[in-house]
Design a protein that fits this description.
single chain, 220 residues, alpha/beta, Rossmann fold, 25% strand
């Protein structure tokens, strides 16, 4: 699927520039406005609210990733991964099921003068060994949210898990504590609004006392 892009600053994190579709372009414009099950939509050509919020949070708090190994899940345009690299991460890996997103992430990382190792992979096969996990906009359907929650909970005991979510509806809030909130500029053609209030959330580790209190109390 061919999408015309330009190198543009990220609205919430203008320190980063990405190859993005025009703000008036819709997700399915390249396919004549129709969804095609045989071709993945070009999610990578847009910078989504969750990724923007994560990028802003990481840039504002570089100590979270500095000197650490970072994994960006469902990377899309690579914005969160690039933010982590800019903030001083020792190594950044980005994964996505869409090979076009992986290629876009490599291209975007090069445009920002940082190194991100990007590869086509599912979170279930991501492996361990990371200190920080980033995941933006990954709770958009029930089935995806259930899979993502299980995978992130598996990784949480050994890593800090940070999620950017604009209230998609399937976010398991009781498993997280909110660290920040942003009003994120988004393309109206994509979200039917010009801003989305988006939270940055940290997953509570099963080894954390706050986790037990949160779960037993049914918070969220």
């Amino acid at each position: 699927m061919r999408v015309r892009t330009s190198l543009l600053p990220v609205p919430l994190a203008p320190e980063i520039s990405l190859h993005l579709a025009d703000s008036r372009t819709g997700l399915f414009d390249a396919s004549g406005g129709e969804f095609r099950s045989d071709v993945a939509p070009p999610f990578w050509a847009f910078v989504w609210a969750g990724g923007q919020a994560l990028a802003r949070y990481v840039l504002d708090h570089p100590e979270i990733v500095a000197g650490r190994r970072v994994l960006d899940v469902a990377t899309g345009s690579g914005v969160a991964a690039i933010a982590a690299a800019r903030a001083g991460a020792a190594a950044v890996e980005a994964i996505d099921l869409d090979a076009a997103a992986v290629a876009a992430t490599v291209r975007n990382a090069e445009a920002n003068g940082v190194t991100v190792r990007a590869r086509t992979a599912d979170i279930a096969g991501a492996g361990d060994g990371f200190d920080v996990i980033l995941a933006g906009d990954v709770f958009y359907t029930r089935s995806v949210a259930d899979r993502m929650t299980a995978a992130l909970r598996r990784l949480a005991p050994g890593a800090a898990v940070l999620v950017g979510d604009p209230g998609r509806g399937f976010f398991p809030q009781r498993l997280f504590v909110r660290r920040a909130e942003f009003a994120v500029p988004v393309p109206a053609a994509l979200e039917e609004t010009e801003t989305l209030v988006t939270g940055v959330w940290e997953m509570l580790s099963p080894h954390n006392k706050l986790y037990a209190a949160h779960i037993e109390g049914g918070a969220g």
